[in-house]
Structures are given as structure tokens and as C-alpha cells.
Design a protein that fits this description.
Two copies of one chain form a homodimer. Chain A is globular, with a radius of gyration of 17 Å. The first copy, chain A, has nine helices and ten strands. The first copy, chain A, is α/β, with parallel strands linked by helices and about 240 residues long.
Chain lengths: ~240, ~240
């Protein structure tokens, strides 16, 4: 247990899908946005490789228009790269020399969850790749915490729930957990953590992605603590 | 495994809170409505004790007005009995001689989940008390299945999710499970089934109910297979 007085006054909640965000008051919170497969895993990889900033867009055409301002255009719809965009939604596309570049990014679920977090005291980007970095950031912050799972087309998915559970498990001694979704996620993570790839084999989104032939992406996105970056939203733009 | 050809063509999905029902097409489905603490546990208890019918109301005053037509008025708001109503939301109030009576019932979450199920091919009432009866009913039906967790004020709760998982676990050999919430619920139930009361001690709603001093209600509502009834909605009225 954490011995600092008052620390446990900080709470953690989990929003299981972006469509339920209206049930949460974000104004006093650090919101952790997660879309494990694959938006937030891409973003974390890009920042770990020196990207200057990422501007998230819910709207596809607004994102496309940013190419005129020198931005790299990135994104997917329904798991596949958008025609005419520079990059898609595989983290390996961001695992290269992109130092100093600016990216305009849109995805089916992840960037929309970011848009809905506007108004929060603080917004950070979470993935297994930067799990411990995010956990340490949250422990140091005085804010209450809301982990927002992007989900899949409005519904709950296993991989984002698992990440939410990983955050709860990592910071459990520093927060009060009075939120059933947080408890559910924590139980699931503790069940799965020994072999997340195996645990997720039955998950509907994983089956869908495996049909797209991107098993390597999945293994990569489930790897913990490859990077020590915590991307944050400032004035609508992600930076590190 | 079930050996009947074609049986696995039947699917099961779980809607984790009533606010997410718009994401599911119910027209081809048997919807199982669950509000373990305590609406659907009360309803199942009432039918097991011979009640004639239960008319569910989302609106409090519409429910109250039914007393003029000879209905017993039942219900709660925020876990407490409504002033002027005949009965509240403790299953022990329905564990007595009510044979042949008619009940008008309204609750914070459960009856609203029932209202939103209108349009489904079939709607049944689930609780741990009639778990196996519901499971057998679903196995015999050709319809796809949607378990709707009432939740708590729009959010996911542990006890309804556990029940959804119990249904998935009971009928897993007779259905295709291609739905992450169903998998999550099934994992949770298998973790909790040895001692659900202990598992749920940290749940936020349980803590709230324990503050109301109704520990006996909780233990009762988590008891499996006390009754062999399957209440069904017909023309807006529950009967057995």
C-alpha cells in the first residue's frame, strides 16, 4: 500500500466503450484513451520514434485536407488503410524514421474517443507499449482517472478492456476503485496477463484482424513496456 | 458438444448496459432481461409463488395509477421502496401468498431495460434464481440470443454481467459466441462461480445495498436454480 496520506482519495473509473462517455464527468479527470488495435499503439510507436505531433481527426476528409499543410495523412476505416493516405493503421508503419514530422490521424474508433475527451483536465494516450510509463504518470498526477476504451463500433472489446485492467492493476495501491467496470477489467487482465495473445484468440476483433493477415501487428500491440513515452493532448494536438 | 446439426448457427450476444441496446438488432432475437439486484429476482420469485401477471412500467406515476385497476403497486427508485406503493424491491416481499394477483412494477433500471426490448421476437426474464430454466428455454428456442444487463444508472455492473456470463457458460455448447462482451462475462462467471457473494463484495452496487442493510437479499439473489419458471413478455405484460 502507498503510505502517502491522502493518495487514496484519487479514484479510477473505466468507460467500456466511447458511446458511454456521457455517463462520466471528465472535468476533474485525467482521461487515458486506449484503442489497442491499433490507433493508440500506432501513436505511441510514432512518438517513440520522434514524431513532432499528431493531430487527431474524427472526420476523414478533414484529415485528408491536412496533407496540403505538410502533414503525413494516416488512418483507417474498418481496419483498412484509407485510399490516398500516406500511412495506414499498422504500428510497423510508424516504426521508422519519422523524427520531426507532423501526422494527421483518423481511425474508426480511437480518434473519435480522443475527440470526446475534450473538456477533460488532461488527456493521455495509452497502449500496452507504454503501460508502465502511463501508470507512473497517473500515480504522480493528483487528478482522478478515467480510462476510456474506444471499443469496436460502439461495443465493448476485449483488448481495450484488458488494457484498462492492466492500468487498474498497476496503480491499484494508489487509487480508490469504486467502479464495477474497473473491477471487471482488473479481473480480466489478471486472468490474461500470462499469455494475452492466447487469451485474445477468441476475441471478435482479433478474429477479424487475423483475417486481414496481421498477426504480427497483434503480437506487437500486446507487448508491454517497449517505450517510455506518454503522449498528451494540448489544444487539440497530441505531443510528447 | 451438441450433436444436432445446425444448432451452432444460433448466436449469443451480451449488451452490458441498457443504454447500449441501440447497437443491437433485437428483431430476430430472444432477449433475456436481467437486473439481478433486484428487479428480475423479485419478478421470478413472484411468478414462482403464483402471481398472475406483472405489468412493467418505466414511468413511476403510470405505475402508481394501476392501483385503481386492482393491481398491487411495486417498485423502487435508487434502491428504496416508493412511498405509497404496496411493495418495494426486496424479493422476500414476493416470497408469500400472492397467487392470482396482478402486479404493476417499476424500478430504476430493470423495467426500463424491459421497455427497450419491445420489438424483440421474444423477451424473457432472467435471474440466478431461474438460471437453468432460462438456459434450457434458450437451448430449445431457434432464435439468436441477446442478454441485456440493466446495469446501474446506465453503467455496467458486476452482478448483471456475472449472470450474462452464467447464461453463456450454461449454453456454450449450443451457440456460436462471436461477441467480446459475452466472452468477458463468461470469463468473469467462471472466476466467480465458486463464491459469488465473496466475489461481489467489492462491487459498487453491492456496497451501496449493504449500506441499506439488505445482505440477505443479496445472498438470495445470487442463489442459483431455486425456481423453474421462465416469465415471458406478451403484449407488454409478463406472464408465465
Amino acid at each position: 500500500m502507498n503510505s502517502e496520506p491522502g493518495t487514496l482519495n484519487k479514484s479510477i473509473e473505466v468507460c467500456v466503450a466511447k458511446g458511454m462517455m456521457h455517463l462520466h464527468d471528465v472535468t476533474d479527470k485525467t482521461v487515458v484513451v486506449v484503442d489497442i488495435l491499433r490507433a493508440t499503439s500506432c501513436m505511441v510507436t510514432a512518438f517513440a520514434h520522434g514524431v513532432d505531433c499528431i493531430m487527431p481527426f474524427a472526420d476523414l476528409e478533414e484529415c485528408r485536407a491536412m496533407s496540403k499543410q505538410g502533414y503525413i495523412t494516416s488512418g483507417e476505416r474498418n481496419g483498412e488503410k484509407v485510399e490516398g493516405f500516406d500511412k495506414g493503421n499498422s504500428p510497423f508503419e510508424y516504426n521508422e524514421v519519422i523524427r520531426g514530422k507532423k501526422i494527421a490521424f483518423t481511425t474508426t474508433n480511437g480518434t473519435q474517443a480522443i475527440s470526446r475527451s475534450i473538456g477533460a483536465r488532461d488527456v493521455v494516450i495509452g497502449s500496452f507499449l507504454n503501460l508502465t510509463a502511463v501508470a507512473n504518470y497517473l500515480i504522480k498526477s493528483p487528478n482522478n482517472i478515467l480510462v476510456v476504451c474506444a471499443g469496436w463500433k460502439g461495443k465493448v472489446n476485449l483488448e481495450d478492456t484488458l488494457f484498462a485492467g492492466a492500468v487498474v492493476e498497476k496503480i491499484k495501491d494508489n487509487v480508490t476503485i469504486d467502479d464495477d467496470p474497473a473491477l471487471i477489467a482488473q479481473h480480466l487482465y489478471n486472468l490474461a496477463k500470462g499469455d494475452k495473445v492466447e487469451f485474445l484468440k477468441k476475441a471478435s476483433h482479433i478474429k477479424r484482424l487475423n483475417r486481414l493477415g496481421i498477426h504480427e501487428d497483434i503480437e506487437y500491440c500486446l507487448t508491454e513496456d517497449k517505450f517510455d513515452v506518454v503522449p498528451r493532448l494540448k489544444d487539440g494536438i497530441l505531443c510528447c
